Each structure stands twice: as C-alpha cells, then as structure tokens.
Amino acid sequence: MSVRINRGKVSNPFVAKVEALSKQDLLACYQCGKCSAGCPMAKYMDILPSKVIRFAQLGLEAELLKSESIWMCVSCLTCNSRCPKGVRIAQVFEALRQIELRNRHDHLEVENVPREMLSTVPPIALIGAMRKFTS
C-alpha cells in the first residue's frame, strides 16, 4: 500500500483516520526525537514515540496496531510538552488504541485477571485499566 504525503489530502485511509481521531497533523512532526528522549516509558516500548509518529505518517497500520508501545503510553503528556511543533503525541497514541479497540481487539482479558489482584488493586485502577485496554 502506498501513501502519498503532501500538504494536501492524505491518500491513505489509515493515516486519515489517525488524524481525524487524534485531531493532529501528523506531518507537522519532523522527527526531532524530543518526545522519545523525555518519555518515561520509552525504555519499555518496542517502537519509540517519535517512530510511532513516523510509522503513522507512512500508514504502517499493521506494525503500529500490533505494537506494545501504544499500550505502554501512560498519557503523562511529557511528549506533548516537549514537542517544538505542538504535536499532541499522546492523542495519537490514544487514537491508535481506539482503532485497535474498535476492531474488538482487547488488550486485557478481564477474566484472566488473577483473583488476588482483584482484592489488592484499588478499584479505580482496575476500572481505568478496563477503560484503556478493553472495547
């Protein structure tokens, strides 16, 4: 699948969907890497935040949606504050999670949460995890 990138319309439906859901201009990112350098979760990610944006620019849907990185983002917004172009990267991560969840590909199987965890984890944490990781 080819992607034509220019300041006009994006020709790839996946790229258009990410931009619509995130309300971000993916082409504004020029890959400075400040988001990745400041991300406290970057060491746990298989694709760094700046590369997630690049993959999204290129329409690499399969690679992004199978990536653990989109689930590792804790939405601390450090990337947003560091971006010199004002790209709200956390919103792009959220858009990618939403695309995957809307396809009914849950990242958490509630029935597999250990019983001992249910009794020790604060209920608000469990609810937050279910909201983030399930459709």
Helix content: 40-55%
Radius of gyration: 16 Å
Count of β-strands: 0
Mean pLDDT: 86
Instruction: Bin the strand percentage.
Output: under 5%
Low-confidence stretches: none
Keywords:
single chain; 135 residues; mainly alpha
Describe the structure.
With 135 residues, this protein is an all-alpha fold. It is built from nine helices and no strands. Helix 1 (13-22) crosses helix 7. The protein is globular, with a radius of gyration of 16 Å. The two termini are 28 Å apart.
Structure summarized in a few sentences:
By secondary structure, this protein is mainly alpha-helical.
Element layout with pairings:
Layout: H1 13-22, H2 34-38, H3 49-58, H4 61-65, H5 69-72, H6 78-82, H7 89-102, H8 115-120, H9 123-133
